[in-house]
Amino acid sequence: MSVQVEWHGVLLKREELNPSFVRSVDELADAARDGAWARAFDLLDGRAVEFTVGVNDWRCGGDSWFSPLHQAA
Known about the structure:
By secondary structure, the chain is mostly helical.
């Protein structure tokens, strides 16, 4: 299985990104926001999402730019 990496940058609109990627990032952002760390770690390990997401990925189109790493702090 190959890993597909997509960086959403700051200029791309949410609608311009792969919907599966947006969904994966949203799931991680929701888990981090809610303090659901077991779920967040599953997502970070790539066991529960189609795209690899990371601790520095903020919610696509979000205005706070909080990443899971910010939420953990």
